[in-house]
Structure of Type I restriction enzyme R protein N-terminal domain-containing protein:
Amino acid sequence: MMIEIIKDIQRKLRNHREVYISNEEAVKQHIILPILSSLGWKIDDPEEVRPEEKTSEGRADYALIKDGKVVAFIEAKNLSVNPAKAVQQLAKYCFDMGVEVGIVSNGRVWLIVKAFEPGKEAKDRVITTIDIVEEPPERIIVKLSCLKKDRIEKAIEICEVLNSLDNNVKRLKAFGISEGDVANYILTISIRRAYPPEISHPSDKITGVYIFHEGKWRYLPIPHGTLKDALMALMSYLSEYEDEEERKIIKRAIAEISMRNISGEKIIALIKAIEKEKNIKVLIAL
């Protein structure tokens, strides 16, 4: 998973800073290429990732290729170099080849550059800055996702939307709305007619369960279900993340619950206890 790759790179940058300060090749091999690979690029395939790509302005460290066309240039530096100082040279590579997206990285800081914009100098066309050390992995993943192979053509647009989102969150905070409330609002945009378990009634006809787990909302359909069906579906889902012995215990518990007449209040209490124990959030869809 990409989050594990980012966490591993954060560890490398903390523990082996002296290596990356003086060794550009280590930055490429240990940081840039693993990230490109996690974004869906075949780093050992010259039809997708080409090192030392020649332009009339010099050689770019990497060219990203899609459908036979260069879609982005990457300029790598060692950790001692401020990547902003390489933006001008990167912009020349992009301009020479008509490439819209430029990327500069010293391993820790990644700059995504919009190659063309009338009236703006190259340094003012940096549209996204990513700090691998300072930012949380979840935020890094979203920002880097614009460089995925299947999204690269929309990279500039995605960056601009994320910038707009950041600015609007700041405006909402200025109105007194907390970051937590904004985050919950965004996470539940696509969720309709779903409520916390304690609001549900035993007689409700349940259509499914939403589970916020590992940073994502997941939906488990339960056609014509009951609260008890929702509890069993939740337990079955979570059992997939346990070892074999624990799965057997959960399976026996599910079988026992299915045979028993359990009050709605008890079922709700069990779901709330699971939420607390597993650090998840559950919504019941009606």
The domain at 2-160 is CATH 3.90.1570.30 (tt1808, chain A). The beta strands are 49-55, 58-66, 69-76, 101-105, 109-114, 126-131, 194-195, 206-213, 216-225, 281-285. The chain has a mean pLDDT of 92.
